[in-house]
Design a protein that fits this description.
The chain is an alpha+beta fold. The chain has one domain (3-165): Gcn5-related N-acetyltransferase (GNAT) (Aminopeptidase, 3-Layer(aba) Sandwich). It is 36% helix and 37% strand. It has 5 helices and 7 strands, in the order βαααβββαβαββ. A 7-stranded mixed beta sheet has the order 1-2-3-4-5-7-6, with helices on both faces.
Length: 166
Amino acid sequence: MTISFQELSSAEDLQIIRDLAADVWPKTFAPILSGEQIAYMMDMMYAPEVMSGELASGFHFEIIKVDGQPAGYFSWSSYTLPDTAKLHKLYLLQKYHRQGIGSKMLIQAEKRARDAGFTKLRLNVNKHNDRALRAYEKNGFATVESVKIDIGNGFFMDDFVMEKAI
């Protein structure tokens, strides 16, 4: 199995992430969120204009390829706390779960943030996403806060905020 990373730098390239998200997101969140909330959040986070705006404002988007094929993605940017970067998204196609690939993605995200001068990496994870919680804890992240964020349309993100020194 050959693993490589590719940073995406154009708005057109971001379609790769939207295609991966269309597969990953519904499968990941169907046991946790309603279909209506999944559709709402997909539009809120993956609409072309949203992602293009994030890219223009300094977000970094990267895909992982397994044997040359896109298998997952992550995005990160600077955060409001000093020396802290925010991991906004990290998702992997289910057929690649439990193979250590997600950990490789986290290591890559940490390296990117550290190389940019950050000393901490922070993320939000749904309180009921047990697989992701275990993976983050296994990779050295600790819960620092519990939040419930109103995202509109009567929906909330009920998350743990996790952080790791990098």
